[in-house]
């Protein structure tokens, strides 16, 4: 918008107090506004002003300066809001990351605890299995002994019975 040849058209109009109203939100510098306020003459700018025009110019300049100050203050407030919002977002992100990290660590600890518990149960199961096998072998051995004894008793009993039967047979013949 400066000294280069801009192809942009800016339209403006003056209100009843000869104040310039900018159309479509275009901002103009103080010097541009001053140039637009001056009545144009065919030979260039007019060099003289009336006393009331100077007062109006001063009021206009003050008003424009106030508006610019308000605009700067508004922009500064918006920038500060963005910075504060950015800080708030950063704190929230850090907080959620910390929360997520703690949750992950808790889950890892719980998983490790479950893994160790499963290992303990597996060892206990193996121990019970060994114990059961030991008992199984012991009882099989005891059963084999009892069967052997029973066979011996049967053999002895059968022999005694045969002997007694032979003796009774020989006596009563």
UniProtKB/TrEMBL annotation:
Positions of region (Disordered): 28-58
BP GO annotations: inner mitochondrial membrane organization
Membrane topology listed for this record: Lipid-anchor
Keywords: Disulfide bond, Lipoprotein, Membrane, Mitochondrion, Mitochondrion inner membrane, Myristate
Main localization, broad class: mitochondrion
Any one cellular-component term (Gene Ontology): MICOS complex
Keyword Membrane: yes
Location of this chain's protein in the cell: Mitochondrion inner membrane
InterPro entries: MIC19/MIC25, MICOS_subunit_Mic19
Name recorded for this polypeptide: MIC19 protein
Native source organism of the sequence: Rostratula benghalensis (greater painted-snipe)
Gene name of this polypeptide: Chchd3
């Amino acid at each position: 918008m400066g000294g280069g040849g801009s192809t942009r058209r800016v339209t403006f109009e003056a209100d009843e107090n000869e104040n310039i109203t900018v159309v479509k939100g275009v901002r103009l510098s103080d010097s541009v506004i001053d140039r637009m306020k001056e009545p144009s003459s065919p030979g260039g700018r007019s060099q003289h002003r009336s006393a009331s025009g100077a007062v109006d110019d001063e009021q206009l300049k003050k008003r424009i300066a106030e508006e610019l100050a308000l605009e700067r203050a508004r922009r500064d407030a918006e920038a500060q809001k963005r910075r504060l919002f950015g800080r708030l977002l950063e704190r929230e992100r850090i907080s959620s990351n910390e929360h997520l990290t703690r949750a992950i660590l808790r889950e890892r600890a719980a998983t490790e605890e479950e893994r160790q518990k499963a290992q303990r149960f597996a060892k206990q199961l193996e121990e019970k299995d060994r114990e059961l096998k030991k008992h199984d072998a012991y009882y099989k051995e005891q059963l084999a002994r009892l069967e052997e004894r029973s066979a011996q008793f049967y053999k002895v009993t059968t022999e005694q019975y045969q002997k007694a039967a032979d003796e009774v047979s020989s006596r009563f013949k």
